[in-house]
Amino acid sequence: MRKRSVVVADSVWEYVGALAPEPRRRCKAALLALPGGDTQQLEGDYAGHFRLRVGSLRFIYREHRGRIEVFYVEQRRLVYDLLAAHIAQLFQRG
Fold first, then answer.
1. I want to staple 59 with a disulfide (CB 3.0 to 4.6 A). Which of 9, 21, 52, 68 is the partner?
2. Are 6 and 70 in contact (CB under 8 A)?
3. pLDDT tens across 21-78, in order?
4. DSSP secondary structure string, the chain?
């Protein structure tokens, strides 16, 4: 099986870059290992999207045109409350 390319949004890299050294290392390793890791397909309003769990963080991504696009990250307690607005804003442009 051919490994798909992983594209990580600048805002996600900025978030990861602001973390302490050990969580930053774990996040980078998990992002580069996609589609492996603690992933799960989302349901309901978020169908077609996936989450990657790294500790208390949730990275949200989709598979699009043969690549993995990681476009959002937030703490677990906030991620699903804020995700709907972010998806609407991000993908209504095309």
1. 52
2. yes
3. 999 999 999 999 999 999 999 998 888 999 999 999 999 999 988 999 999 998 887 7
4. -PPPEEEE-HHHHHHHHTS-HHHHHHHHHHHHTTTSSSEEE--GGGTT-EEEEETTEEEEEEEETTEEEEEEEEEHHHHHHHHHHHHHHHHTT-
Tokens 């309003």 locate to 45
**Residue length of the chain:** 94
Distances (CA, A) of 56 to 67, 78, 79: 25, 10, 10
Q: Which domains does the chain have, with CATH numbers?
A: 5-91 (3.30.2310.20)
The first and second tokens of residue 53, run together, are 């769990």
Tokens standing for 24? Answer: 């930053």
27 CB burial (10 A radius; 0-12, 13-18, 19+): buried
- Could you tell me the pTM of the whole model? 0.82
Angle between the N-to-C axes of helices 21-32 and 10-17, in degrees from 0 to 180, rounded to the nearest 10: 150
